[in-house]
Design a protein that fits this description.
Four copies of one chain form a homotetramer.
Chain A: H1 6-14, H2 19-22, E1 25-30, E2 33-39, H3 53-72, E3 76-85, E4 93-103, E5 107-117, E6 125-136
Antiparallel strand pairs in A: 1-2, 2-4, 3-6, 4-5, 5-6
Chain lengths: 143, 143, 143, 143
């Protein structure tokens, strides 16, 4: 169905100069969806000590794109997405879970839940939900 | 109308640990809207050499939030937003222009255009549009 | 938690002059969410013979609002929502299922799936997904 | 650029079984954008006497689609859109103004403002803003 697997997706993530220093890690990538994890550090925060909305948006964008790629292949771009923030991002790590809701030949609609993880034993808390559209792009075979 | 002015908004931006290393600069903050500029560096890119969608989303989120703050005051959070990517982010800098479309007492709807700037003399190109909702939050007076 | 139950929600739906002639019916309204059904008629269509996107948007908007009401009470308005259309609406009826993703005191974020039902024995097909924000409004006690 | 003009767009609108009884009228259709007008009637309302959100969503959806058609031609579908409601729809008519923000070969991003018109001499009030994506579809030449 697609040329993407866990190893290739992980390699794509590692080759994103923006993702590497942020610390995003690919946790899973299969037919059930995509999980990206981001251990929360001070550098991810805004002036009130919570995770910056931009970090949540970044993580959702990336998880949606990889989910789209799981259906459409590696040559995809995110056309756009909507994110709703539910609670302040405060904890030890973020976990974004994205899945394909519907995929055609050239476009996939995906949804993503971003959880914030707390101390050991604490249940993950949903802190953002996102919905977006990923499009396949034509690339030269040599690309 | 609000307790926010250019100097305070600039200070808020500088106190965002996530924004500082990214290099976002407040260019204007007044009744006409908010402008944030981000000189493009390699660290902002994804694996294909374009600005990462997460950077565009971050910049739009931040510009929308500051625009909301211009109407509602400094104690605001972004409830959510929608972003559509229009073209690859490729150039020397990003410029996000956000404005208030409608503000009530506790909520403002704002829109944002993100332009990519090229070489001197080149016209800015619109590379993303966003629309979002910013909510006033209750904070203790001492906060 | 809320003053809304199935009978009151059904009554609210029946008192919507826009909903009544369209034929929307409340199927369920409980802690698990809200279901609205709309038997497809010719009057719901666009020029190509499919259900008009506006009908899908109307049904999603209404289901999201009722879901928000299940958490926040009857005095709510929909602040906004996003809808993605997945496939043409073609069949015998639409079924919108909405649920609360997160509710605070004054705002709820809800998601909705709109299915199109076909001939007996056919599996329902997902034809749109929506995500929106519902806000509680202050109303005089006598309202 | 496109096979659509005012007369053809008007004809398409008239051939929408859902639009005709609602009373939507095409006011303008040119390079500057699209305007749809809807005289408010009781049948457009919800239980509180305001225009139903579904009517605003329908009108925005339709205006966005026609705007997309002005760039991409008559064979288009709306992929999805986001709408924010700003104030209750109360007045004599709705006026939706949509324009193309960016168009590629197969996709256009459009924005729409929905105004509510009041008594003669009153300024139109912005009551909703929407942003959406319209996609060109392949149709057989004979279609």
């Amino acid at each position: 169905m697609t040329d993407l697997n866990f190893a290739l997706a992980q390699s794509a993530l590692e080759r994103q100069p923006f993702s590497e220093p942020l610390g995003a890690e690919l946790i899973s990538f299969d037919a059930h969806g995509v999980e990206l994890r981001l251990p929360i550090q001070d550098k991810h925060k805004q002036q009130h000590g919570f995770v910056h909305g931009g970090v949540l948006a970044y993580l959702a964008d990336n998880a949606l794109t990889f989910a789209g790629g799981s259906a459409l292949g590696s040559a995809v771009v995110t056309s756009g997405f909507t994110i709703n923030y539910l609670r302040p991002g405060q904890g030890t790590a973020l976990l974004a879970k994205a899945r394909v809701v519907h995929a055609g030949k050239t476009q996939a609609v995906c949804q993503c839940e971003v959880f914030v993880l707390g101390a050991a034993g604490e249940a993950p808390k949903l802190c953002a939900v996102a919905q977006g559209t990923i499009a396949a792009i034509d690339v030269p075979k040599s690309a």
